[in-house]
Amino acid sequence: MRRPLLFFLFAQSIIILILACLDPFGLGSLLLPSGKLSEKAGELYTAEGVVTNVAVKQRYAAVTVDTGREKILIRLSVTDADAAVYDLLGRNISATGVLSLPDSRRNPGAFDYRLYLKGRKVYTIMDVSRYRLAAGGIKRPVLHWLSVKKGQFYAAVRPYMSEKEFQITAGLLFGETSYMDEDLYEQFRLNGIAHVLAVSGLHVGLLYSLVLKLLGGRRGTASSLATAACLAVYASLSGFSVSVLRASCMIALNLLSFHLRRRYDLVCAASLTAIVFLFVNPWQLFDTGFQLSFTAAYSIGIALPWAESKGKELSDRYKKRWILTAFEIFSPSFMVQLGMVPLILFHFLTLSPVSMLINPPAVLLAGLLLSCGLAGFLFSLLLSGSVLAAAAGPARAFAFLLGLLSDAGGFIGGSGYFPAPTLQALALYYIAFFWFFSETRVVLRRRGKRFLAILTAAFLSCAALLMPKGLGLSDHIHPLAYDTHPITFVDVGQGDCIHICTGGKNILVDGGGNAFSDIAERTLRPYLLKSGISHIDTAYITHEDIDHALGIRQLQEIFQVDECIKLGETNEDCGILKAGDNTFSALLMADADIAREKLLCSMHGPELACNILKLGHHGSAGSTGPDLLQCARPHMAIISCGRNNRYGHPADRVIELLENSGIIYARTDTDGAVYLKNAENGLLVFENAAKDKQWLIRTTDQTQSTPQRP
Q: What pTM value is reported for the model?
């Protein structure tokens, strides 16, 4: 039964990917539906329905409302994360606001929020003030009661713990990582133990073991019903996350196999669960939690039996019991990490060798904290504050030890950020990983069919290398070839950032900047590492304005920048660069105004000719005059500005001038990052990061070769 299910899952995944990415027959919408309310984006809308999920964020509450036709995510403004927010779950509400589409991918390789929400059947969002939301009667009383009690539990237990201990407890119990300080969560993530804070199959497995132990290990109809009820309650408290639902479904299949007197196979259970999930919502295939959860399940089901047999073999050979004990302790964590590390590196850009060492004690402490935390939650339903304070003591101790373990991992070091593997390398790794541990390989080897085994491995390897390019997800088949582009206008919000990749060199011109956000950590480093870039050869700062210089300064603190050159101090003397190679030329105007443009034209008129013009000062009314356009004669203009910026960039005058001049333009505020995808045979092909817009421009102009100042 295992092989047909795996084959079906693999075939279905490929079909979905083809329909989603290539859509060759125009049938993609049948398997990958989109919401009808998307057509009303930008309109004032009143959403009425029942709240199915509530998640408390740093500055707002994410409230999912089922309107009966589809789900809407309402971002509700709140002053603090108080228990009143949890009172909304299960209620009918009415909220009025402007519908909008979630952000798609803003920079190459960046997080796609729109795709993430589609995996939860949410297609539109709405920002709502608390004064424009009316809560009605309770529609789902059980969900409402559990949510309220969870909020009350947080409020009751918080005074008895330090802030760090509370954050760890809230994150581990029900996945409320939004309570956590960013630095604390980052430390857990770098040490490779953040999975204990994101409610997952680990938590469900620990809960299942705890329930069985409380029931004395007895298995029967009553114990199965009690287990199913506990899992359902826990899934509700954790917001019905994909990983919890996956693990709960697999445990349900385990219970069902016991009652039907059938052998339970973990791989078959994972495959069947995945097929059901994808049938309900195919968009889940692209969800990071879905991928990590099922990769962990398959790693345990396929690789762990091999490790256990090797441990037994070595223990018997050397007659050392401790060898088998060591394998039993470390092999589960090691095999799961071996299966998940490439995917974690691809999505989160982190690699943590120390995680192999600290994961076993972290899992042990997580189990103890989960047991104490759930006991405390039950006490909060029944007992007074003084008793709850005593019950919170053990949970506080285990949370403290877990934090201490994370600190120890940081002290040991070795963890950090690294370039993401390519899709080709990722596919090749998992083909090799699961083929090596597969029963088919072992059977072929034992039967002496070595040639057939090699031929099968070669076929699978070729498929892994060709699949990303065939599906349009990559431009290459080589596992070490990244999809880098000659020039990329990075979306850094209200600011400038241009990445030039030419002659084997990586050059940044400005890096954006925001006084309220670390643009280097949130945008620049992820973009560079996703592009396979581990260092910047030269960074140019055109002038010292925050929205140009701050991002470079911040990047120097967390990323290797070999050389940094400052070209000017203010807008009046900002550095103007011309860059390119034998296929394109780009004139980068920084924050130059019209007066500076006229001076430049009078001094360097013919030298300003270019294919690509990055408009000065984010397309403001005081920049980009007709003289510059006549001298530069660009085929493509780029406006780098932030969405809904308070300066009104770009100015209507500038847009009108470009359109009257017949110059095609792109804007980072509406299009996200824009890059030159291809340049050959006099044709320039531009594309945005979301890959939903493309510009084809034919040109025969001569181009410049190296970055230079006119």
A: 0.89
